[in-house]
Amino acid sequence: MKSLLNSPSYTRFSRQSTVWLRLTLLCVVGLNVATLTAAKLTITVEKPIIGADISFVPQEEARGKKYFDKGKEADVMTILKDNAFNWIRLRLFVDPTAENGYSKDGFCGLEKTLEMAKRIKQAGLHFLLDFHYSDTWADPGKQFTPSSWQRYTGSGLEGQVYRYTQEVLNRFIEEGVRPDMVQVGNEINNGMLWPQGKLPEGDLKTDTTLEMDSFCKLLRCASAAVRAVDPSIAIMVHIACGGQHAESVAFFDKIISRDVKFDIIGQSYYPKHHGTLDDLTFNLNALAKRYAKPIIVVEYQDYRKEVNDIVHNLPEGLGWGTFIWEATSPGWGNLFDRDGKTNENMTIYPTLYKDYTK
Fold first, then answer.
1. Do 205 and 212 form a contact (C-beta atoms < 8 A)?
2. What are the pLDDT digits (tens) for 236-262?
3. Which of 20, 32, 185, 326 is 20 to 30 A removed from 267 (C-alpha atoms)?
4. Residue 3: inside a domain, yes or no?
5. Which are the catalytic amino acids?
6. pLDDT higher for 5 or 210?
7. Antiparallel, parallel or unpaired: β 295-300 and 68-69
8. How many H-runs (helices) and E-runs (strands) does the chain carry?
9. Residue 73 CB: number of other CB atoms within 10 A?
10. Is residue 268 a contact partner of residue 238, using CB atoms and an 8 Å limit?
11. pLDDT digit string, tens, across residues 26-37
């Protein structure tokens, strides 16, 4: 399927006034039939979510890495499923082969992510797709606009976000690998698609108006595209403020007041950046009470049992679960050693699942 994302004839709004009017209603005003319809749906997921981000796996396998559990070689999906994992998260870059992109070999681009998604579905696992809206890493310290999108500004960039999100999701569905959940951006507490969608750092977000308006238009376009394609796909908004309560509230109060439609609060928790376990506990409990939305710690590395217990014990069943980041990397998730063998860190997950499903 030839991509239309960068076709000038496809993307110039002056030639498609009807499309532009619809995008204005969807993204800027925030009113659309798909969202209103979605408001009547109950979006359900299998929980507890025992999830893993394994986006590095294709690169590891390309270098010849194999995976082992209890002395036997097996597919990494099978190993994770056998150890009570039921969700897999994959990141997606717009064009990782671009000049300043993530990978000249196209890792974490659309085609290779589709290949991984097929393995996820074949294994009977659930699938979270993480849109970065960048050619490379997006996080609180950087949110680079894709190189092929840099000619767009203002409403042009808003429309590009909508079209790209819509086209990508349609492609996944056509290939039979519909995501069960999507993130519209990765760790976006400082915004996305800089400079247009950049936000001040920290709880200074409380005082922003123009910056937050610009950011929320982009975020509404991403969310509206998901709703338009399939309103039953759960939408997560993901920030990296696991233990930062003031910043979390400043962010979510602002986007909710600007009619950003989403279903799930996602947080990252790395202690050196996001505080103590007590900070995490306080923040997540307070967010659950304030917003009454499900919460997932969608990236973590340390304190595996403790983080899962904190999420599981949130009030009203709003703690839906976790995703350990890069489970196969000894330097990150560390559930496998350098030889691809599961280690003692893997053993806690079957016990957690059993305890949480009693």
1. yes
2. 999 999 999 999 999 999 999 999 999
3. 32
4. no
5. 187, 299
6. 210
7. unpaired
8. 13, 10
9. 11
10. yes
11. 565 443 332 333
Residue 8 maps to a domain: no
Task: Flag whether 1 is in a domain.
Answer: no
Please tell me the distance from the alpha carbon of residue 277 to that of residue 267, in angstroms, as a whole number: 13
Q: What is the pLDDT of residue 194?
A: 97
**Phi and psi angles of residue 66, each rounded to the nearest 5 degrees, phi first:** -120, 160
Q: Using DSSP, state whether 89 is helix, strand or coil.
A: strand
N-to-C CA span, the chain? 46
Read off the tokens for 308: 């899962």
Query: What are the tens digits of pLDDT across the range 85-132?
Result: 999 999 999 999 999 999 999 999 999 999 999 999 999 999 999 999
Q: Among 342, 328, 333, 322, which Cα is nearest to 48's?
A: 322
Total count of residues recorded for the chain = 358
Residues 6 or more apart in contact with residue 82 via CB below 8 angstroms = 69, 74
pLDDT band for 41, please (50, 70, 90 cuts).
low
Q: Is residue 320 in some structural domain?
A: yes
How many Å apart are CA 239 and CA 82, to the nearest integer?
A: 30
| Cα 72 to the center of its chain, rounded Å | 32
Instruction: Classify residue 65 by burial, with Cβ atoms within 10 Å: 0-12, 13-18, 19+.
Output: middle
Quote the domain boundaries for residue 68: 14-356
In this prediction, residue 15 has a pLDDT band, given cuts at 50, 70 and 90, of very low
Strand residues in 1-142 grouped as ranges (E): 49-53, 68-69, 72-73, 87-92, 126-131
Specify the pLDDT at position 101: 95
pTM > 0.85: yes or no? yes
CATH number of the domain bearing residue 269: 3.20.20.80
Total count of domains within the chain: 1
